[in-house]
Amino acid sequence: MALQKGWVIVMASTNLMLERYVDTDDESIDSLISGCPVLDELSMRECVGIDVRVVKILAPVLTSLAMYYLYFNYWEIMDFPEHSYKIVLETPSLRFLDNMDNVAEGYSLQSLSHLAEAPISIFQTTDQFESDNSDYSEAVSDFLKGLSSVQRLSLSGEFMGVMYAANCQMPKFHCMTYLELGATGDDTVVWTLLPELLEKSPYLGALVFGEVHSGEPFGREPVQCWNPPQSVPSCLLFHLKEIEFKFFEGQKDELKLLDYFLNIAKVWEKVNMHYYNRHRNWTAVSITPRH
User: Of 135, 150, 197, 202, which sees the most CB atoms within 10 A?
Assistant: First the structure.
């Protein structure tokens, strides 16, 4: 096992934190984790060497996993390698997954049937942004497929941008009851992904938006904004009860989206909005249906 000394590693019988310890080959982290048979919580930050091609985590009883900026000395890397690492998870007991990192070259997420919550903030490096997006379309699709059993999913604006650019295949989220969509500077992302997310989430009960309003995305020409799906998603007919806008400006497209939910959703109970007006004042607004 080739682990080079960094800043801190704290190991207990059930908890392991790897921070600024660098593995220099594909077996290092796998070997370390296999020596912790009752590992329950694992946190990793800046612990992958630049030559590593596979980060494999085999932990049968692991319930919580956090992965942040896995490359060692992440913020000092000037040129990222042409080929990134692949993430392999064999964690059948996992209930919490927190991932904040650049897009990996590939993902194999096995048996995450007990996954309760997943805040995801995966983004593109500069090199990835300038490359052919089809290069990682399959990887993003495989990652989402691995999350298909999650109950509560939070997608950052950066990751929604990755999904949009990669034109990935979206699975059905057959267990998801809560979805939060983070703020994004490219609202075409929200308008494009939202109909399919609703259609793929049949049991969605709560939907939370970050900043959602029209703007010109990444220098491209503005395109058509909110375009409702042709058929009403089943979650709007039977399950969606709570909707929240964390940042609401009352712009035309926001109002169209709000009107769609108020008139199409059949079982909604409450809409909460944090309204930010032209005087830069915040106002909390709550809407309930008339009876």
Answer: 150
* Closest to 3 in 3D by CA, of 14, 15, 16: 16
Asked if residue 29 lies in contact with residue 4, where contact means CB atoms within 8 angstroms, the answer is no
Helix-then-strand count for the chain, H and E: 7, 17
If you count them, how many residues does the chain have?
291
Q: Give the 3-state secondary structure of residue 255.
A: helix
User: Amino acid identity of 53?
Assistant: R
- pLDDT tens digit at each of 291 positions of the chain: 444 444 444 455 688 888 877 766 777 788 788 778 889 999 999 888 888 889 999 999 999 999 999 988 777 665 666 667 899 999 999 999 999 998 999 999 988 999 999 999 998 875 655 566 566 889 999 999 999 999 999 999 889 989 988 888 999 999 999 999 987 555 678 888 999 999 999 999 999 998 655 444 333 344 457 788 889 999 999 999 999 998 888 878 888 889 999 999 999 999 999 887 766 677 888 999 886
CA distances from 288 to 87, 242, 271, 291 (A): 44, 10, 7, 9
Residue 50: closest CA among 18, 81, 7: 81
| Torsion from C-alpha of 28, 37, 14, 100, nearest 10 degrees | 40
Amino acid at 57: I
Q: Tokens at residue 85, please? A: 């690492």
- Distance from C-alpha of 191 to C-alpha of 259, rounded to nearest angstrom: 15
Tokens 């805040």 appear where? 119
Residue 99: burial class (beta carbons within 10 Å; 0-12, 13-18, 19+):
buried
| 3-class DSSP state of 196 | helix
